[in-house]
């Protein structure tokens, strides 16, 4: 019988997001600063064995879903072998992956064989030039080929996540709605958060969820019932058969539903994406000290706030880590 643990606001812990690397083959402008960006020391990055130990302990406390992220997880060596072990941990019902999609064509088959069935793929534009501008490389075709391959193999659902930035890709919202129907995928739009590369972030560039929905009015979006797999998104069925999701970390917080903790690639529990409070669990992991780890997990739950404090009109925050270092 597994234990179930809750934070002090009664939210049960069910979900863990683990960053396996801070490295990435992209340099998204909103995520990584282009200059003077220090990577973590290799020695500081958790070994797969440490992550598996952590996952077993979390699973014994009632966590049943794990998302692997980064940096770009698919650039870490032997990821699929690691995932094969992760998916077999008792009580873990689902292991999901968030990827930039550039290497998906190559690894989709091995991922599926390893037991990963659900993917989130980040793609901010369908335009080559724009992708090159935002990511530093143009991998549009590779990403689309990866999405196609993943759909053929049977990953379901496939979610494509786009950060919507005013005057950059907000004119593509309609195209993503069409892509959803064409590829039978869920296209989700995320509000641009003031975390990552603050040089490139500007409040005027945020397109809030309500505006995104308005721009899709021709598709007569019908709100769908929330389920365990929708995560923080509110999903809408469109009249073209597609499904879109809107994720509003700033304009409509979803903190009351938060059932997760994050582990950074260098072994810190980060209870909230939008708060720099962290607890270092590396020692507990490396010494396989289950009691200490459980104590630290409880501490992490205890320092979770009821809500983060990034709001419309009050977005002037400066977080210490970039998204690539936290694991978005
Ligand atoms: N490399 C993988 C990818 O891009 O999907 C996984 C890690 S990436 C940090 C995870 C997600 O964080 C991506 O969808 C990315 O668009 C999102 N992200 C990064 N910085 C962001 C920001 N400032 N605001 C909103 N989303 C952001
Ligand atoms: Fe890399 Fe993902 Fe960050 Fe882009 S958003 S730089 S793909 S980690």
Query: Largest sheet at a glance?
Result: 12 strands, mixed
Structural category: alpha/beta
Strand content: 15-25%
> Bound small molecules, which ones?
S-adenosylmethionine, iron/sulfur cluster
The spatial strand order of the largest sheet comes to 7-8-9-6-5-4-3-2-1-10-11-12
- Overall geometry comes to globular
Q: What is the helix fraction of residues, given as a range?
A: 25-40%
List unreliable stretches of 5+ residues.
none
What is the succession of H and E elements? EHEHEHEHHEHEHEEEEEEHHH
Count of runs of 4 or more consecutive helical residues: 10
Kindly provide the radius of gyration, computed on alpha-carbon positions and rounded to a whole number of angstroms: 19 Å
EC number: 4.1.99.22
Protein name: GTP 3',8-cyclase
Binding site for S-adenosyl-L-methionine: 30, 71, 122, 193
GO biological process, one term: Mo-molybdopterin cofactor biosynthetic process
């Amino acid at each position: 019988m597994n234990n179930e643990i809750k934070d002090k606001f009664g939210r049960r812990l069910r979900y863990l997001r683990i960053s396996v690397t801070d490295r990435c083959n992209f340099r998204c402008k909103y995520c990584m600063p282009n200059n003077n960006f220090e990577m973590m020391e290799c020695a500081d990055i958790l070994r797969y064995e440490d992550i598996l130990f952590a996952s077993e302990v979390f699973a014994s406390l009632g966590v049943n879903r794990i998302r692997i992220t980064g940096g770009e997880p698919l650039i870490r060596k032997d990821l699929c072998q690691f995932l094969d072990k992760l998916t077999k941990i008792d009580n873990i019902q689902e292991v999901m992956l968030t990827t930039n999609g550039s290497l998906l064509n190559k690894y989709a088959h091995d991922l599926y064989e390893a037991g990963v069935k659900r993917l989130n793929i980040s793609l901010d534009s369908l335009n080559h030039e724009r992708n090159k501008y935002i990511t530093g490389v143009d991998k549009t075709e590779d990403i689309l080929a990866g999405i196609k391959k993943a759909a053929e193999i049977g990953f379901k659902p496939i979610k494509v996540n786009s950060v919507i930035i005013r005057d950059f890709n907000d004119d593509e919202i309609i195209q993503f709605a069409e892509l959803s129907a064409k590829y039978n995928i869920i296209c989700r739009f995320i509000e641009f958060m003031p975390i990552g590369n603050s040089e490139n972030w500007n409040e005027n560039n945020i397109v809030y969820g309500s505006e995104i929905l308005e721009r899709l009015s021709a598709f007569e979006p019908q709100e769908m019932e929330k389920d365990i797999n929708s995560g923080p998104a509110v999903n809408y069925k469109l009249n073209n058969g597609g499904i879109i999701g809107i994720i509003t970390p700033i304009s409509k917080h979803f903190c009351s539903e938060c059932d997760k903790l994050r582990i950074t690639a260098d072994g810190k529990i980060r209870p909230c994406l939008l708060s720099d409070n962290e607890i270092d669990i590396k020692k507990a992991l490396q010494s396989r000290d289950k009691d200490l780890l459980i104590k630290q997990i409880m501490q992490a739950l205890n320092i979770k706030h009821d809500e983060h404090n990034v709001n419309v009109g009050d977005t002037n925050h400066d977080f210490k880590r970039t998204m690539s270092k936290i694991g978005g």
